[in-house]
Design goal:
- This is Thioredoxin family protein.
- It holds the Pfam family Thioredoxin.
- InterPro entries: Thioredoxin-like_sf, Thioredoxin_domain.
- The protein contains three helices and four strands.
- By secondary structure, it is an alpha+beta fold.
- The chain has a single domain, classed as Glutaredoxin, CATH 3.40.30.
- It has a four-stranded mixed sheet with strand order 2-1-3-4, covered by helices on one side.
- A hairpin with a 5-residue loop joins strand 3 and strand 4.
- The termini are far apart.
């Protein structure tokens, strides 16, 4: 792992987030690209729980791309993906098409927010 902040929070309670974990586990064909920095307070606050959610959902390490940025928020893929704030988590399908992204702050944790967005996208695709 290239981000210490993605190390799963050992106190995160997967049972309290059963729907989130189930949604993440169901979509085993997705890739999570995570831009962050171990120096970033938002990353330190949000990413350990996200790492724990991915672990609880048995998302394999090869489907998680951790990208560490320096304090100037520079690093791989920043320009290509237009990364401005961190943490940013981009979820892509097997073709490399972006499904959704979490950027820095939402009103719910990243795993919950992304699971809701994925469920919404699935309803749209199957409707």
């Amino acid at each position: 792992m290239s981000l210490e902040t993605m190390r799963p929070n050992p106190t995160w309670d997967a049972a309290s987030y059963e729907d989130t974990v189930d949604t993440l586990a169901t979509h085993d064909d997705l890739t999570y690209k995570v831009w962050g920095g171990d120096w970033c307070k938002d990353c330190r606050a949000l990413l350990p729980d996200f790492g724990a959610a991915l672990e609880a959902a048995d998302v394999p390490a090869e489907r998680i791309d951790e990208i560490a940025l320096d304090q100037d928020k520079q690093g791989p893929g920043v320009d290509e993906y237009e990364i401005e704030y961190i943490p940013t988590i981009v979820v892509e399908d097997e073709s490399g098409d972006e499904i959704t992204r979490f950027v820095e702050e939402e009103d719910v944790p990243p795993a919950v927010w992304l699971a809701q967005e994925l469920e919404s996208e699935l309803e749209t695709e199957t409707a």
